[in-house]
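Ticket #4471: structure export looks truncated?
Reporter: QA, pipeline team
Priority: medium

Steps to reproduce: submit the single chain below to the structure queue and open the exported record.
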Amino acid sequence: MRKWKKTKILQSRQNQCILLLFLLITVIHAIAWNSRVFADWYRLYVFPVLTGLPARLSGLFRGSVGEVLIGAGICLVILEIVLLPFFLIRRSRLYRYRFRNVRLVCWILLYIYGTETLHCYVLYHATTLEEQYFNQAAAYGAKDLVNAYVQVVTKANELSEKVKRTADGTAVYHGTLGQLYQDCVLAMRRQGKTYPYLAGYYPNPKPIHASYFMSQQYLLGIYFPFTMEANYNTVMYPVNLPATVCHEYSHLKGIILEDEANFFGFLACIESDDAYLQYSGYLSVLGYLSRQVQKSVPEEIRKTLPAANEQVRKDDIFLTQEQWEQVEKKAVFSTEAVNQATNAFLETNLTMNGITDGMQSYSRVVRLVVRYYGDIDTK
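Actual output as written to the record:
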């Protein structure tokens, strides 16, 4: 009778460690898929502890560590391709080269899989904000939608006259960038009194160096779960920044659903003490509400509703025409191709994590805003 022997691959302690960690992470992912109680407990008690150190470490650097790592990864792939022919010629070194590189790739992939799972994928299965804090039994209709829309557009019109502007009419913050960061942190911490998972430490948000490319993807901001950073597009129209930062800060606190992050970007800003943040918050949901009103409210009622004034319409943009021209001037790939690729990736990522309506889920923020104003009116 033959004795069973371990394969050479599993004789290595490193390889055993890689396999065990992979299995452990997969088990945690599987439990989250099947237990909302576990996902809620994880988000409230484990996630803040697990992510506190990487958030503080990456926070020591002014630039985006995640962006640097992505760049380094691309360079590593290019280097491997360039060096491979050399090792193929010198076959005596080929085995050692392949063995070391495969192991390095395994560690990198394990790190990505682990951080994406523990800092992102598990959180998709937690109780939703609407289930936890709003009365789902109370249905809402066109009247409630109109009420929310009127309040948002009215406040946006008022605030459009109060914010500081440059000579060309661009809405800008009245202080330094550092002060704006701190205002956003204070706004989020204030929400932590009602929503416990939003309390605690926040690092400074990080500007993305490749913001022109980011603009081609129509992205205002991005959350890097492998470095626990909130990143933002430096090219976008300035008034988008506060709501974008608060949106990405929400992800840092375990709010992974995009509609909920949109809501907290809105809520943190409008309940802050700063007019510029408030204006940013109202503008961040105005488009979603306007489109839903256009779709759901009869024309005879729409004609009676207040409209966004000319200044609000000018400010409610992603990029100005001049900024788009700069983006296209610096583009390596066509914006259409980049945007399509990004949309395909986001759609796949969302649906694979149980968000069946994919990118359409972003617009679910309308439900949350309507619920929010409905709760205020009943208090």
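Status: closed, not a bug. The export was complete when the record was re-opened. Leaving a note from the reviewer for reference: Confidence is low (pLDDT under 50) at residues 1-6.
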